[in-house]
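Changelog note: in this version the structure field was regenerated for every chain. One regenerated record is shown below for reference.
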Amino acid sequence: MGRLYRAGQERRSFIKDVATMATGTTTVQLIGIAASPFITRLYGPEAFGILGIFIAILSIMNPVATLTYSTAVVLPKTDTEAKNIVKTAFFASLIVAVAGAVLLILFKEPFISAFELDSISGFVFLIPIVVLFIGAGQILNQWLIRNAQYKKIAILSILKALVINVSKVGAGLIHATAAMLIVLASFGYMLQAFMLYIGISLKAEKRLDKATGTGQEPIKETEKSTDSALQTARKYRNFPVYRAPQMLLGAFSKGIPVLLLAHFFGPAAAGFFSIANRVLQLPAGIIGKSIGSVFYPKVADASNKQKNVRPYIIRATGGMAVMALLPMIVVGLFGPTLFEWVFGQGWNPAGHYARWLAVLIFFEFILHPSRDAMLVAGMQKQLLVIESIFFVFKTVMLVTGFFLFNDDVSALILYSLAGVAVSVLMLLYAHKKIPTTITHTYS
């Protein structure tokens, strides 16, 4: 009976945490949806195309901003070891930002020429600065997740969405240019890191006040890790060695369509892709992140306690599939009409893009629990191999579509179908290879 009671408590806790994150992410989603018709009418496809190129570059750098050490923050049993990972991740973020700045100084002109980035050449040096703030945001977010501060994460996400979307509309009424969108996008990453830092600082102060206000000593950690920061970096080296390249490839495979569309068909085509991808990824990415933020530490905790993790994976995968099925069908059937009605005249082509991107994003969406479980199981090497295949196959099919059909939609159809095929294979592989009881390699 005790075991059943504890299992029921765990299920209720999981549902409550997911509901907290989902409430916040749904609100963020509604804010973005409400602002989008105004923003798209103010700026237009070409401005969004130029912003899309800038965001594509950032999205490639985003996953490796901390060499993925931030992903390991939730894994250790003790806070001391987790803090060592935080220090390592901050140092890695600084290295990545400095390396990016040096490369831009040395290769700015070839870089701009290769990807047709003349329109944003004045903003390329924002990239390493933004990457530094992206890394800080990832680390601080993972620390809040480790401490189960889901409500705080949700509130901060809502505040950021309000500030950035209102700013885009207000700035668009005064000076609706691609440059303004780029500046505001950069500011968004900085604002997120700052708010997360304030959120953690307030939590620490409340802890201290609660302890000292009752005549108690400040809360101290009872378990200690003997590892130094350098030893911790070595202990979790699978993340930068295998996970970072895997995520870099995944991000590059998402960013490459924008760059290639801009190169072959111009900024407007990149704009159509950017808005279609953003609209679809907004709910998929945020809801997926909400569930993953709860699911990942739950699986890590289950592995530490030698529990069966398969029920967690199956429930999360099934729930995400049910959640995403209806939106995918609606976009597939009515995409062009919906996009022109919501975003204004001239955005119909984005709806055609969205029809096929919806199918791809659905399968990528339901992969989140399996990916997270593979991370906990120490299967970064396998993820790297799979993601490499994913990247090569999707990119080859995209380029093939460009040269065979000289048509953007046909190229995106091939790109999406290639992604679906690899996603299905990865899902089957993960469910076959992930052990029932995970013993991760970081204990």
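Spot check on this record: Residues 18-433 form one domain. The CA atoms of residues 7 and 320 lie 21 Å apart.
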